[in-house]
Amino acid sequence: MDLTPGKLHIHGSSLQPGSGAMSGKTYAKTAEAVAKLDRTQYAVTQQDATEPPFRNAFWDHRGIGLYVDIVSGEPLFLSRDKFDSHCGWPSFTRPVEGRRIVERADRTHGMIRTEVRSRDGDSHLGHVFPDGPGPEGLRYCINSASLQFVPKESMEAQGYGDYLKYLDEESAS
């Protein structure tokens, strides 16, 4: 994967090579969803802020399920791909569907990084770094404030049943 700063990237699927969208469901940012955000969630998702490390909801969360964009509800990361990077924010080796992530160059704070945003919600999620443990060596360092967690037992009822089989694969291996 090319993480060259300055390039805009929209990735293909991370679930299986060549697999497309998991469902025909559409996701979008709405004024109602933005109005429901608390101060931190708004600052992170709409103003590109960063929440404090180790003082956020999911940095050490161990639940089994799906992490979705708090604004649009689009599926972003599975618990099976979460790992402890010791950085104080939730970290993932890959998105559930790469096409749902948009990467942009970020030259703020005197650094050159790659920002990640949700495609449909246009929420600032965090950054991706080339120092992860997975097969592609990536670490998606994500703000908890940009995420909502859907527990495995609620996924079907909340419209994310198509993703259950990937969590079941995890428990079978």
What does this protein look like?
The chain has helices at residues 31-35, 39-47, 152-155, 164-172, and strands at residues 9-10, 65-69, 75-78, 82-83, 91-92, 101-106, 113-118, 124-129, 139-142, 147-151. The protein has 173 residues and is α+β, with helices and mostly antiparallel strands. It has a single domain, classed as Peptide methionine sulfoxide reductase (Metal Binding Protein, Guanine Nucleotide Exchange Factor, Chain A, Beta Complex), CATH 2.170.150. A 7-stranded antiparallel sheet has the order 1-6-7-8-9-5-4. The protein has a 3-stranded antiparallel sheet with strand order 3-2-10. The model is unreliable at 1-21 (pLDDT under 50).
Chain-wise SSE layout:
Elements: E1 9-10, H1 31-35, H2 39-47, E2 65-69, E3 75-78, E4 82-83, E5 91-92, E6 101-106, E7 113-118, E8 124-129, E9 139-142, E10 147-151, H3 152-155, H4 164-172
Antiparallel strand pairs: 1-6, 2-3, 2-10, 4-5, 5-9, 6-7, 7-8, 8-9
Note the main attributes of this structure.
alpha+beta; Metal Binding Protein, Guanine Nucleotide Exchange Factor, Chain A; 4 helices; disordered N terminus
Give a summary of the structure in a few sentences:
By secondary structure, this protein is of the alpha+beta class.
CATH topology: Metal Binding Protein, Guanine Nucleotide Exchange Factor, Chain A
What structural class do the secondary elements suggest? Answer: alpha+beta
How many discrete domains?
A: 1
Helix share bin: 10-25%
Largest sheet: 7 strands, antiparallel
CATH class: Mainly Beta
Task: Count the DSSP helices.
Answer: 4
What integer is the average pLDDT?
87
Unreliably modeled segments: 1-21
Beta-strand content bin: 15-25%
Number of strands: 10
SSE topology string: EHHEEEEEEEEEHH
Tertiary shape: globular
Give, in spatial order, the strands making up the sheet with the most strands: 1-6-7-8-9-5-4
Distance between the termini: 27 Å
